[in-house]
Amino acid sequence: MHRLDNAINSCPSPDPQRLLWAAARAALTAGAIIRELYARPHDIRMKGEIDLVTEADVAAESAIIASLAEDAPGIAIMAEESYRGEPAGEERTWIIDPLDGTTNFAHGVPIFAVSIGLLEQGQPLVGVIYCPMQDELFCTSRGGGAWLNDGRIEVTTTDFLVQALVATGFPYDIRKHLDQVIAQTRSVLPKVRDIRRMGAAAVDLAYVACGRLDGFWESALKPWDTAAGWLLVEEAGGKVTGFSGQAYSPFRGEILASNTMLHPLLIDALA
Questions:
Q1: Is the domain of 88 the same as that of 179?
Q2: For residue range 122-175, what is the model confidence (pLDDT) as tens digits?
Q3: Helix %, strand %, coil % for the chain, to 5?
Q4: Extended strands (E) in 40-152
Q5: Which CATH number covers residue 190?
Q6: pLDDT digits (tens, 9 = 90+) for 242-270
Q7: Largest CB tally within 10 Å, which of 53, 91, 177, 224?
Q8: What is the mean pLDDT of residues 181-203?
Q9: Residue 130: what are its φ and ψ, rounded to 5°?
Q10: What angle separates helix 174-188 from helix 263-270, to the nearest 10 degrees?
Q11: Which residues, including other chains, have CB under 8 Å from residue 202's CB and lie 6 or more apart?
């Protein structure tokens, strides 16, 4: 946990320090479980036609909930595999994706993450994204900057789309969104250097925050996909909105994240 020292010390007050530490410990605990299960045969069931859940999702979520209950008791929880409806807007709520990128995990592609964000009155307070196969811990607190392990991170300074490497993702209910996905890809692809498809929105947002990607957009997401990455990108100096530039909410599904110079250009391209 020494990699957290700089991020913890940069928190604006003791309360987010405690909460960030709790989220990071929970994410690392879940990541260790996922890493141990990665090379084993998987118990896969279907939540939808192409939406998977594995034994690792369930085990990681249980570990996260138990860890948070021990370190930060009394806070509401909204977790992907035990989703019970939207939280009240005014209360603090942990928003948890125990394994973002389950399809990658199930197919042996080592790009996936644990994502834990804390919202209060709909706004993010702390966020942690942990990529267990790379042992990369991204963490942030409101006003405390964005961090990868023990180093501060920032978004890119790319200001031309033709120089930008961007990412997107495809909804599980792709038939419903196919026309929009194709139209946006057709518009963006000729304007940028290239497009990547990581298969995990939390990883995409972490990569925007640390400068590996210049931008990311996706529709039909769930709150647990973006609650942590939203704050991470903003604290790294980036901008997060809906496709038309409207104020972001993880409960509205669509997200556009990039540096501030590319953001209006990507809004135009997605329109």
A1: no
A2: 999 999 999 999 999 999 999 999 999 999 999 999 999 999 999 999 987 778
A3: 40, 25, 35
A4: 44-46, 52-54, 76-79, 93-100, 113-120, 123-131, 136-141, 146-148, 151-152
A5: 3.40.190.80
A6: 999 999 999 999 999 999 999 999 999 99
A7: 224
A8: 97
A9: -120, 125
A10: 120
A11: 97, 100, 101, 113, 114, 115, 129, 225, 226, 228, 229
User: Are 26 and 136 contained in the same domain?
Assistant: yes
CA separation (Å) from 161 to 180, 182, 214, 247?
20, 19, 9, 22
Q: Which amino acid is at 179?
A: D
Same domain, 91 and 191: no
- DSSP at 192: S
Q: Tell which phi-psi region holds residue 50, choosing left (phi > 0), alpha (psi between -120 and 50) or beta.
A: alpha
Amino acid in position 122: G
- Tell whether the model's pLDDT for residue 50 goes beyond 70: no
Give the model confidence (pLDDT) of 75-113 as tens digits: 999 998 876 555 555 689 999 999 999 999 999 999 999
Residue 210: domain span: 161-270
